[in-house]
Amino acid sequence: MTSYSIVSEFEGTILENADSFSYFMLVAFEASGFIRFTILLSLWPIIALLDVFSYKNVALKLMIFVATAGVRESKMELVARAVLPKFYMDDISMDTWRVFSSCKKRVVVTRMPRVMVARFAKEHLGADEVIGSELIVNAFGFVTGLIRETDIDQSILNRVADLFVDQRPHLGLGRPASTDSTTFLLLCEEQIHEPIHRNNRDQQLQLQPPKPVIFHYARFVKRPTPATALLILIWIPFGIILALIRMFFICTLPLWAIPYNIGCFRVILKGKPSTGNSGGLLYVCNHRTTLDTVLISYALRRSIPVIAKNMSPLYDLLTPIPIVRFTRIREVDAEMMKQALSKGDLVLCPEGTTCFQPFVLRFSAMFAELTDRIVPVAINCKLGFFQTPTRSWDGLDMIFLLMNPTLVFEVTFLDQLPLEATCSSGRSAYDVANHVQRILADTLGFQCTKYGRSDKYKTTY
User: Fold this and answer.
1) Where does the sequence pass through the membrane (predicted)?
2) Which of 195, 313, 424, 459 sits in a 20 to 30 Å window from 15, CA-based?
């Protein structure tokens, strides 16, 4: 099949879930906020009834209008590259992917606006073309909420036909319901309407997964299906109150009392923290949330200064540990770290930014040049509803985090690096940094990646 061409439906075929409502909920919230999110959720019964009575085009156009009307085109593109891919990836049908990835020319068909799907399909699924509805954007760069197509299915059929003028697509994948006279499947030499299953175990073992999603910066941990979205909306007033109470106690209670902060945290400690009589240990950890460094101080039962970039005044107020400011000037930062280590222990997140996916980003190597007394610390967390907002004010990071009904952190202290694993043995700083990155990734069951802070900002900004 390596020379075959394939046209596959996105919803319900490449994605196991055929209902696109939750993805429009993500667009509504990430592009506009809670008001639009609430309006779209309140219309869900009407949208569901329209689907039941076969007014699918009307239901789709209603979702598109409510989710996108008045949104800047640039904001739609941001949500499409920084928010939606993770939720798509979680819903991928690996059986469909096996067939889709085995073909040479790959075309994805979606009834959703093409901008919502194109980036994911091309970057992570290797699609050559994406055909979907097209949003109308006015002269000022705002989405009108309308689409160019009157009959979406007929438009998709015509565009697939234009794409394959000389030869019909070899294979078409679609849902069993897609059998009317306007389905693109009629253009394909072979049609598959039924669920696809692996033929044998060997094919399963040889299956190459799609390109993973590394940078994910949605404010929701879970995809907002109608039931989940309703729970979130009900929880938000209580979450805001709870976050304010938690922030007050974080500011006033001693570090040892943090896990008992009205059920704020469940902290699971593993390993034995390294200690030194003369101080000067550098605790190097991966970066999951804004509370990572606070948890290390909690585990050590003493306040450990942290190296950090400029944060908001609210973060300064809430953090119960000293902050040593990064300037992003290498010589200045190196001297600053040396002075801080000469006075005692220090905490550093060499990734330079948070990563919510099961990856450890590339480490800055500067820390390995400054000290041989390095203690790796692996941090993982489980959140209830919310995580760091996309392109938000830094102070919102802490607020959204503390709004979660449950917060579970796992902190694993590993052994201090032996001298032969540091620069003292002649190893380069990059080798040492990569070694620490691998140790942390292996401990957490994550993957190492060569991508770093700058790559994240290219995706999320």
Assistant:
1) 34-53, 229-256
2) 459
- Cβ(320)–Cβ(430) under 8 Å? no
Say how far apart CA 434 and CA 414 lie, in whole Å. Answer: 16
b/e map 368-407, b = 16+ CB within 10 Å:
bebbbbbbbbbbbbebbbbbbbbeeebbbbbbbbbbbeeb
State how far Cα 58 lies from the chain centre.
31
Confidence category of residue 178, pLDDT binned at 50, 70, 90: very low
> What pLDDT sits at residue 436?
98
Which ranges of 212-305 does DSSP label H, i.e. alpha helix?
226-252, 292-300
- Written in H, E and C, the secondary structure of 93-161 is CHHHHHHHHCCCEEEEEEEEEHHHHHHHHHHHCCCCEEEEECEEECCCCEEEEEECCCCHHHHHHHHHH
- Reported pTM: 0.91
Rounded distance between C-alpha atoms, residue 283 and residue 413, angstroms: 9
Q: Is 121 exposed, middle or buried (0-12, 13-18, 19+ CB in 10 A)?
A: buried
CA distance 232 to 239: 9
| 8-27 burial code (b ≥16 CB/10 A, e <16) | bbbbbbbbebeebbbbbbbb
User: With contact defined as beta carbons under 8 Å apart, do 227 and 106 qualify?
Assistant: no
Cα end-to-end distance, the chain, whole Å: 39
Question: What is the full DSSP assignment across 29-87?
Answer: HHHT-HHHHHHHHHTHHHHHHHHHTT-HHHHHHHHHHHHHTT-BHHHHHHHHHHTHHHH
**Residue 67: CB partners within 8 Å, gap ≥ 6?**
24, 25, 27, 28, 31, 36, 40
Domains identified in the chain and CATH numbers: 5-193 (3.40.50.1000), 237-460 (3.40.1130)
Exposure of 185 by Cβ count < 10 A (0-12 exposed, 13-18 middle, 19+ buried)?
buried
Would you put residue 92 in left (φ > 0), alpha (ψ -120 to 50) or beta?
A: beta
The mean of the pLDDT values for the chain is: 88
Strand 447-448 and strand 359-360: the pairing is: parallel
Does position 428 have pLDDT exceeding 70, yes or no? Answer: yes
Cα dihedral across residues 158, 159, 160, 165: positive or negative: positive
* Tokens (6 digits) for 206: 């040889």
